[in-house]
Specification:
The complex is a heterodimer of chains A (240) and B (367).
Chain A (H helix, E strand, L loop, with lengths): L4 H16 L2 H23 L14 H4 L2 H21 L2 H5 L5 H34 L4 H5 L2 H28 L3 H23 L7 H25 L2 H6 L3
Helix pairs in contact in A: 1-6, 2-4, 2-6, 4-6, 4-8, 4-9, 6-8, 8-9, 8-10
Chain B lengths: L1 H16 L15 E5 L2 E5 H4 L10 E10 L2 E11 L4 E5 L6 H8 L7 E6 L2 E2 L5 H7 E4 L11 H11 L5 H11 L15 H13 L5 E5 L7 H16 L3 E5 L3 H7 L2 E6 L1 E6 L1 H8 L2 E7 L6 H5 L5 E6 L4 E6 L2 H14 L4 E6 L4 H17 L1
Parallel strand pairs in B: 5-10, 5-11, 8-9, 9-10
Antiparallel strand pairs in B: 1-2, 3-4, 3-6, 6-7, 11-12, 13-15, 13-16, 14-15
Helix pairs in contact in B: 1-6, 5-6, 6-7, 10-13
The chains are: A mainly alpha (240), B alpha/beta (367).
The structure holds adenosine-5'-triphosphate and magnesium ion.
């Protein structure tokens, strides 16, 4: 089986255009990151210089990993059911598109914006800390290992959330229900990253490597399961 | 129309210059012959069919059926449709027309029977190959309302991997007279305009078999006429068209053959054939004053099977062959000294056929 890049790109481009013109989605994508920025910003900016030692045991930065998980999950859980409600699935699925192409296009359209937004928010956060935090706080916070983990785990978490979101989306008939389920299904990821951020789970190299491997496996599984769950007939007739 | 002609000419030119165009590679569709009709040039795929597929029907179904749980959407449907034929698929609401279109369009799987679409057996594995060769204009347009008309079509041109998508989109839009609305958001279009965008979208892929599910529902008379002309033009260029409609005069005018579906196939044939099959041929005679002895006038005439009086001065004469019976009836009337006001063959429309069959089903159901 060969995947047509052109078809994947067609879905991807169409999807981004639709997102940009959908106010609910634009607001959602703006509000979520802001919500998750508040806690670490307040925490870090209110720290005195003397308290910077305490930061050594926390990973405030990792708390922001909730952003890729939730933003991509929300987008992905909208992706299929949104089209279904608009009645646009029938014409799309009537073209020679394969389900893999359709799903890849959808997944990329959730992946690229959520990873881009996440990296942008991290950069913004770091810039604020660098400028406004007491001396010492910034250097205590910005550890190379945390930054690396942040960069690596962002796409991994986003990928996993996307497969969960799309799987939910192909089986839902209501946008709202799908999005709520999507957020719910991604809460475990958020809880785990928060526990690591607040040092309840100790971040070690082993934990990091283990986490990365688990996420890689989950991503692969997610793709398999989502494409197995994709059923043209069910999507069009709403039965089975 | 002029745009459509240009479109077709453009297509012809590109076919001549780029044999590698995806659809050009479809058996029987390359090397289009040029056929001059007045000033019009139309690509003739029919004439170009010179391969093994040539004799195979463009579309066929054998005992095809689809159930949703206990509900039978359609059952035991069999037909064969030739290349370049316009086939009308008629039937009351809920008859199973849309479900048949979706089944043949590989969107849903049949629960019984078999079919070939564009010469390819309808199996789950052949879905992509079949969808490459057909296109479907669904019952509801299904446009991306936040995208512009051109963006909608551009997306589909890519999904069909059309060569030169921009040009393809322009020509499809001109074919439905929508070139001036290309940059409008689909959400801002009226129902009829959306319908036309959906039709343009169905033309993007240069299909061998085109499924049109009620293409003129909701269109104004001028737009309807344009769609009819477009269908006629596509037919001339060799596209096989499967047309579902509730407009019987549309079916009568456009279709080579029609089928009437009411869950099962009630009848199939040329519109004229169906009329003849269902209704006895009759002559209607009107005289100035009632005939004193009509029984004697109409007795023993060639090709006359019987007669009845219809009102005071009208007579309905059942005939087996109007061309034989009409002169004989006329002579007999003149010999009897009758003052004939009119004599004519009664005509039944496709609508009469349709209503007759559907009413029969309705009565059968009540009993
Ligand atoms: N997804 C479905 N689940 C259950 N029954 C269905 C489904 N889709 C169609 N049906 C039933 O199948 C039958 C045929 O429906 P279909 O839509 O094919 O009719 P139609 O001939 O296109 O009607 P219309 O002229 O109103 O468009 C109807 O009784 C319909 O209720
Ligand atoms: Mg229908």
């Amino acid at each position: 089986m060969s995947v047509s890049r052109r078809r994947v790109r067609a879905i991807f481009r169409k999807e981004l255009r639709e997102y940009r013109r959908n106010r609910t989605i634009v607001t959602g994508m703006a509000i979520l990151p802001v919500l998750f920025l508040i806690q670490p910003l307040v925490a870090v900016l209110s720290l005195g210089a003397s308290a910077s030692g305490g930061l050594a045991h926390e990973h405030e930065l990792l708390y922001l990993l909730a952003i890729p998980a939730l933003v991509s999950g929300t987008l992905a859980s909208y992706s299929v059911v949104g089209e279904r409600q608009q009645g646009t699935l029938e014409p799309v699925l009537g073209t020679p598109i394969r389900r893999e192409e359709f799903l890849l296009g959808k997944a990329l359209a959730s992946f690229v914006p959520s990873v881009a937004i996440s990296y942008a928010v991290y950069a913004f956060f770091l810039a604020l800390v660098e400028i406004f935090a007491r001396p010492g706080v910034a250097s205590a916070l910005l550890r190379g290992s945390d930054l690396l983990a942040q960069l690596v785990f962002t796409p991994l978490l986003a990928g996993w959330s996307i497969w969960v979101g799309i799987a939910i989306s192909t089986r839902s008939s209501e946008i709202r229900v799908a999005q709520q389920l999507g957020v719910l299904a991604n809460l475990p990821s958020v809880v785990v990253t928060s526990l690591i951020a607040f040092n309840v789970i100790h971040a070690t190299l082993v934990v990091a490597l283990g986490g990365a491997v688990v996420l890689l496996v989950l991503n692969r599984l997610g793709w398999r399961i989502t494409s197995a769950m994709f059923d043209r007939e069910r999507l069009i007739t709403g039965t089975r | 129309m002029i745009y459509l002609i240009r479109w077709l000419i453009g297509k012809l030119r590109r076919r001549a210059t780029s044999p590698a165009e995806p659809l050009g590679a479809v058996p029987g569709r390359d090397e289009p012959a040029v056929h001059a009709r007045g000033e019009r040039f139309v690509t003739r795929r029919k004439a170009a069919a010179s391969d093994a597929n040539r004799d195979a029907p463009a579309l066929s179904a054998l005992g095809l059926g689809k159930r949703f749980g206990d509900r039978v959407a359609f059952d035991d449907v069999s037909f064969e449709i030739g290349h370049g034929e316009v086939f009308g698929f008629l039937g009351p609401n809920g008859a199973g027309k849309t479900t048949t279109v979706r089944t043949l369009g590989t969107l849903i799987a049949p629960t019984s029977g078999s079919a070939t679409v564009a010469g390819i057996p309808l199996t789950p594995d052949n879905g992509v190959e079949i969808r490459r060769r057909i296109s479907i204009m669904p019952e509801s347009p299904g446009l991306y309302l936040r995208l512009s008309v051109a963006e909608n079509l551009g997306c589909f041109a890519d999904l069909y991997e059309a060569a030169d998508p921009g040009d393809r989109v322009d020509r499809a839009l001109r074919a439905v007279n929508l070139a001036d609305r290309a940059s409008d958001a689909c959400g801002s279009l009226s129902k009829g305009l959306r319908q036309r965008v959906a039709l343009a979208r169905a033309l993007l892929s240069d299909p061998q078999v085109l499924f049109l599910d009620e293409p003129t529902s909701g269109l104004d008379p001028v737009a309807t006429r344009d769609v009819h002309e477009l269908i006629a033009e596509l037919r001339r260029s060799g596209v096989t068209i499967f047309l579902t409609t509730h407009r019987l005069e549309e079916a009568e005018r456009l279709c080579d053959r029609v089928a009437i579906l009411n869950t099962t196939l009630r009848t199939i044939g040329r519109p004229a054939e169906l009329r003849d099959r269902l209704f006895a041929k009759t002559l209607t005679v009107r005289t100035l004053i009632p005939l004193p002895e009509p029984g004697r006038v109409f007795a023993d005439l060639p090709a006359v099977d019987g007669w009845r009086q219809d009102g005071a001065r009208d007579y309905v004469v059942a005939v087996s062959d109007p061309s034989l019976a009409a002169p004989a009836v006329t002579r007999a009337l003149v010999q009897a000294g009758a003052d004939v006001l009119s004599i004519g063959e009664s005509h039944h429309s496709l609508e009469d056929v349709y209503l007759e069959l559907v009413n029969e089903d309705e009565e059968a159901r009540r009993r």
